[in-house]
Amino acid sequence: MKKSGTIKGGNRGLLIAVVCLLLAIIGVLIFLLARNNGDQLSMTSKRDPNAAVGQIKGKTKEEIQAELNKIVEEGMFNISINSQITFETGDGEGDVRIENIEANRLLMSVAISRDDTGEQIYETAIIEPGFHIQNDKLDVPLPKGVYPCTAMFTAYEPDTEAVAGHAGAKVTITVEN
Amino acid sequence: MKKLIAIMMVLAMVFAMNAGALAAESSTPVSFKVDNTQISVTVPTAMAVTVNADGTLTYPTGAKIVNDSVFPVMVTNVAATAEAGWTLAETDDMATDDLITTNIKPGTGTAEFVNVGAVAATDWNMTATDAAGTDDEIALTFESGQIYRLTKTLTTTGALAYTITFTVEAGSHT
C-alpha cells in the first residue's frame, strides 16, 4: 500500500523537470519583458535638447490673412496714360503721357496694340518709378484715322525684373494728317 | 490862369481815377485747365493665396481697383490665365489634376468665375475722383476657391498658378 505525501524517486525527477521547465519559461518571459522595458527606457532616456514645451507654433488665421493682405498692398500698381493720344502725322510725335509714378514700387513697360488688327504699334523700354514719357513716336507709322487701341502695362520686380503682373487701359489714337 | 490849371488838374485826377477804375474792371481771365484725358488707375498686380488642408483657398481681403482719374472709369475686361500645369475652370470636371475653381466679386455685386472676360455690369464702374480728392474704388472679393487633385509640391515661397489682367477704360457701363 502506497503512503500519501511521499514521493517516489521517479516522481521526484518528474517534479524537478516540471519545476525547471517553469523556471525556464519564467526566465524567458522576464527576459522578453526586460528587453521591451529596455527599449522603452532607451526611448525615454534620450530627450532632444531642441524640443520645446507645448504644441507646434504655427501662424494664426489672422496672421496668415494679414500676410496675404500685405502682399496685395505691396503689389498695388498705378498705370497712367493719355487716353486720347493725338499725332499730327503718323510718323510724328504724339502726347502719349505715360507715367510710372514715384509711389509705384515696380518697374513698368507699355505696349500699345490696335484693337482692330491686334498689331502692336508702340512699345516702351522699362520705365523706372518717378519717370515718364511725355511725347513719343509710334513704332509703326499709321495713316490718318482714329484707332481704338489697348495699352498693356507690364509691371516688373525692381531687383530681378521678373514680370509681376499686367494691366490694360483702352486708349484712342488719332492721326490727324 | 491858376483856375485853369486847377481845373486841368482836377480833370487829370478824374481821368486818372477813371483809368484806375477801368483797370480794376478789366478782368484777367483765369481758367483752370483740367487734364481730362489722362487715365490713371491703380490695380493689384500680385496676390498670394494659401491652400488649406482640405484644398480650399484663403484669399487676401484688401484687393481693389482704384480710379485716380478726374473722370469716371470702368473695368471692361477681366481675364484670368492659368500658368502651365494648372487648369482654371468654373466647376470641377472630376478628372483633371491641379484644377482650380475660383470666383471674383466686384464690390457688392455678383460673384462669377474669375475669367470673366468682357464686363458689362455697373458694379465695375468707378466715379471720378471727387473735389475732396477721394478716389472711388472697387473692392475685389475672391471666393469659392478650391484646388482639386493637387499633385504639385507647394512651397512657402509660392507657385504661380494663374494671372488676372484687368483692363480699364474711360466711361461707365450703363
In short, what is this structure?
The complex is a heterodimer of chains A (177) and B (174). Chain A is an alpha+beta fold.
Secondary-structure map with pairings?
The complex is a heterodimer of chains A (177) and B (174).
Chain A: H1 9-45, H2 61-74, E1 76-82, E2 84-87, E3 93-94, E4 98-100, E5 107-114, E6 120-123, E7 131-133, E8 136-137, E9 145-156, E10 163-175
Parallel strand pairs in A: 2-10
Antiparallel strand pairs in A: 3-8, 4-7, 5-6, 5-9, 9-10
Chain B: H1 2-25, E1 38-44, E2 50-51, E3 57-58, E4 64-67, E5 73-82, E6 87-88, E7 99-106, E8 112-113, E9 117-118, E10 125-126, E11 136-148, E12 162-170
Parallel strand pairs in B: 6-7
Antiparallel strand pairs in B: 1-4, 2-3, 4-11, 5-9, 5-10, 5-12, 7-8, 7-11
What does this structure look like?
The complex is a heterodimer of chains A (177) and B (174). The termini of chain A are far apart. Chain A has 177 residues and is of the alpha+beta class. Helix content of chain A is 29%, strand content 33%. Chain B has 174 residues and is mainly beta. In chain B, 14% of the residues lie in helices and 36% in strands. Chain B is elongated, with a radius of gyration of 31 Å. The A-B interface holds A 64-65, 67-69, 71-84, 97, 99, 106, 150, 155, 164-171 and B 37-50, 58-63, 66, 68, 76-77, 163, 165-170.
Strand content range of chain A: 25-35%
Largest sheet of chain A: 5 strands, mixed
* Poorly predicted residue ranges of chain B: 11-23
Coarse morphology of chain B: elongated
Instruction: List the total number of helices of chain A.
Output: 2
For the biggest sheet of chain B, the summary is: 6 strands, mixed
- Per DSSP E runs of 2 or more residues, the count of β-strands of chain A stands at 10
What attributes characterize this protein structure?
heterodimer; A: 177 residues; alpha+beta; five-stranded mixed β-sheet; two-stranded antiparallel sheet; 10 strands; B: 174 residues; mainly beta; six-stranded mixed β-sheet; four-stranded antiparallel β-sheet; 12 strands; elongated
